[in-house]
């Protein structure tokens, strides 16, 4: 096996009639077997080859997560070409940059809106021969063609056999929390290693059902795609964010991966609902939560859980936690969290509810998966030990260095940046971390994002941000500031989906611009910050905060497409507010 298409071919030969994917249909959900997947990929690959895809070329995909994304990607790879990924939320200018920088000559888009986006920058894309639309209208000049119209003749197996393991498979552009995005070159062997390493863990099987909604434009989504082919796990695919809760109840999957923001929103919705209802429900919820946390923390310490606590926990489970599990279909064995740090508070709450979150860690530059907590030995606050075959060491300054087959070939067209990131085969992650005696990695913060106060003390902002979000269900995002300042401050945004029902029930204004100034709203946020401050050294406490009238979003440039805060962008946009914190004692 030397490529992802050959991996798919092996999967089809092994389990041709087993379910591969489940997709939304007019009647609910429709299934595709591995044999049917192979037939569709073969037809698309030969069609793409007819219009110019082949060894050494790049094909960009600009679409939300759906079955056609996966089929198109596998077809592109089958021609010997490499896939360039673009987030559907990217602007026309951002899309044009990725297309031109990657040298993509074909662009596969989701619909007419995405066609219009690409067409608006057509003059900047002289090398693009065709735009292939999944759901849309072909153009009279033949520049835009429909995906389902592609077909061709040729020797598919010969195309696949010609692909080498060191050939470029994907060009994924970093989301760019700082500076311009860089194209990460990942080979077929990078992905084959990552998929095989997860298989070696033995934690998922063909008996599972995976629910995939994560952006396939992101390396985390791509890793999941390869893992499911390697192991033969059926996957339900639907990238519509507003359908996640409904789909979980209908599909009843056994596991799902998500970014921490999704778990935060679930937690905040539950907490805010019972807080709004008050009375006995609120008292029972708080008691169940505290009971569950006692059990979880005892297990984490390796201590025995007293009999009385076990009895109380069984009651708490029946009254509260079992109902929460049922909202997710009742079959979840575990969740997987990646792409950003998961707060310990979130991990403990979900574990208490019998919904363990297995946190992992990796960079696009390391094929997304490098470390992963094991279900039988999960340690909250860590991202687990390395995957089989991944090497790790901690540099003198605390930076985490990773080695092994999963490490990228380099940054596309950027030899200087490549040499800075790769040193003697080791990837410099830019993250500060430490290993425990079991080889589990704890990430303390980004090397370049640590705050150094004017007093010379280092503060980890993302740690504080995560704790505040866990302490107040109404908070959407927190931005801790204080680099070269004499104390730390914070910008806070509200999750209006959660806040609005509470505000209305309390007779408070539902408009965020008015609500942000209301004493009750400030009291809720202030209580959470005081709770976090109580456990921190004085120099690491948040002294002042402001609630903003609007949330951070991808569209305003304050979040990356994977929902990480762009710290420099936030500081620039809200510089006046941040400076005002320090204008007076």
How are the SSEs placed, and which strands pair?
Blueprint (H helix, E strand, L loop, with lengths): L3 H11 L4 E7 L2 E6 H17 L7 E5 L4 H12 L3 E5 L5 H11 L1 E8 H8 L10 E6 L8 E3 L9 H6 L6 E6 L9 E5 H14 L8 E3 L6 H13 L3 E3 L6 H8 L3 E4 L1 H18 L1 H23 L5 H21 L6 E4 L6 H9 L4 E5 L9 E2 L18 E4 L4 E5 L6 E2 L3 H7 E2 L2 E10 L5 E6 L4 E2 L5 E2 L1 H11 L3 E7 L6 E7 L1 H10 L6 H4 L3 H15 L8 E6 L19 H7 L1 H7 L4
Helix pairs in contact: 1-2, 1-3, 1-8, 2-3, 7-8, 10-11, 10-16, 11-12, 11-13, 15-18
Describe this structure as you would to a colleague.
The protein is an alpha/beta fold. It folds into 3 domains: 4-196 and 215-228, ANL, N-terminal domain (Rossmann fold, 3-Layer(aba) Sandwich), CATH 3.40.50; 258-330 and 332-446, Rossmann fold (3-Layer(aba) Sandwich), CATH 3.40.50.12780; 451-581, 2-Layer Sandwich (GMP Synthetase, Chain A, domain 3), CATH 3.30.300. Helix content is 40%, strand content 21%. It contains 20 helices and 26 strands. The strands form 5 sheets. Strands 2-1-11-10-12-13-14-15 form an 8-stranded mixed β-sheet, with helices on both faces. The protein has an 8-stranded mixed β-sheet with strand order 7-6-5-3-4-8-9-18. Strands 16, 17, 19, 20 and 21 form a 5-stranded antiparallel β-sheet that branches. Helix 1 (4-14) runs antiparallel to helix 2, helix 1 (4-14) packs parallel to helix 8 (219-231) and helix 15 (461-471) packs across helix 18. The longest helix is centred in the middle third of the chain and has 23 residues, at 279-301. It is globular.
